[in-house]
Amino acid sequence: MNKKNVFIVGFGLVIVALLAGGYFRLGQKQPGKYAGPVEKIAIGNLGEYSILNLIAKDRGYFVANGLDAEIQEYQAGPPMIADLLAGRLNFAVAGEFPGVNYIFQKDNLRILTETSKQKVVQVVARKDKGINNPGDLKGKKIGVTRKSAGEFFLGRFLTFNNLAFSDVSIIDLSPAEMTKRIADGQIDAVASYEPNPYKIAKRLGDNAVVWSAQGNQDTFALLYSTDEFIKSHPQIVERYLRSLMEAEQYVKDYDREARNIVARILHYDEPYIEYIWPKVAPHLALEQELVLTMENEAHWAIQNKLTDKTAIPNYLDYIYFDALEKARPEMITIIHK
Predict the structure, then answer these.
(1) What is the pLDDT of residues 40-52, one digit of tens each?
(2) Could you give the angle at which helices 234-253 and 51-59 cross, rounded to 10 degrees?
């Protein structure tokens, strides 16, 4: 066979292979370009703990999936979940501990996916109040947002340092109020999640002492919706999750650009973005660790009389698996079937 014939045969085989590959892919379920009506959704966001919402909005992924997304920033998870349950939001990103508290009270809260996992809760205290070691917190005023991760991890931190809530004076404050009051000396310490400890420590300078409140336990940022909304709008849920997956891929492919987008939207300076970014890497998953964490926190809430309930809920009943299972089943490690 001469070179010309070899070339023709080889070229023909390549064409056949490409056509076969194309036919095979056509036989697979591929998410096509959305061509239906654009539908409005309202999203509650928690800053850097849900950067995928910000990326999806900025990069046009929501629009490409037929969603007109309005994003509202919140300082803390509890008021955001309250707005979600009141129908003012369709989706909300908040920590798992607010979810634990609300599931004790409400039956219609649902978890769709984790959006990040991190260790960002810290205790910051003023040295000029005589606080140099955790034991010095006894008898001091500590600001914390009730029913947030800060409250849970403060409780653990006190226990690990041979203290209890009864040994300190707890002041229920929003993150913004904490920053002002500790700076003014009206309270002696705070327990909160970033960026609040970072801002407070920076403001107090050498007068600040900082401890990690979490130890080895992670806290999760979770995407919540309601049972009613999911049942009446399953396609919106799927398109919303698809938008977040596209945003997650963008973060992986364009790390620097993603940092710049988040810094611009949240008005964060470069030093803080560089500090926080490795701590809040986004990931869409449902891990067995999440269920164990929520059960542990529910047990703690019952022991500390934060609820009048005495039984730990079955959290599998409050997780909507279908959307993530269709799109990314390998990211689900929760045993649920």
Answers:
(1) 999 999 999 999 9
(2) 90
CA distance 291 to 288: 6
244/239 Cα distance (integer angstroms): 9
Q: Strands 121-126, 67-73: parallel, antiparallel or unpaired by DSSP?
A: unpaired
User: What is the pLDDT, as a whole number, of residue 1?
Assistant: 54
State the pLDDT at residue 26: 36
pLDDT of residue 35: 80
Spatial contact of 118 and 219, defined as CB atoms under 8 Å apart = yes
> What domains lie within the chain, and their CATH numbers?
39-118+219-331 (3.40.190.10), 121-212 (3.40.190.10)
CA dihedral 56, 269, 283, 243 (to 10 degrees): 0
- What token pair was written down for 255? 């790390």
Q: Which residues pair with 94 in a beta bridge?
A: 222
Would you say 324 and 284 are in contact if contact means Cβ atoms under 8 Å apart? Answer: yes
Instruction: Extract long-range pairs of 128-134: CB within 8 Å, 24+ residues apart.
Output: 128/185, 128/207, 129/185, 129/188, 129/189, 131/188, 131/189, 131/209, 132/209, 134/158, 134/161, 134/163, 134/211
Q: Exposed (0-12), middle (13-18) or buried (19+): which is 180, by Cβ within 10 Å? A: middle
**Low-confidence residues of the chain, pLDDT below 70?**
1-32
At 147 the pLDDT is 85
pLDDT computed for residue 5 by the predictor:
52
Q: Which of 46, 134, 147, 150 is nearest to 98 (CA)?
A: 147
The pLDDT value given to residue 28? 34
User: Are 44 and 93 spatial neighbours (Cβ–Cβ below 8 Å)?
Assistant: yes
pLDDT at 30: 41
Is residue 294 within 8 A of residue 249, CB to CB? The reply is no
pLDDT digits (tens, 9 = 90+) for 306-335: 899 999 999 999 999 999 999 999 999 999
Cα separation, 289 vs 70, whole angstroms? 31
Instruction: In whole angstroms, give the CA distance from residue 306 to residue 310.
Output: 11
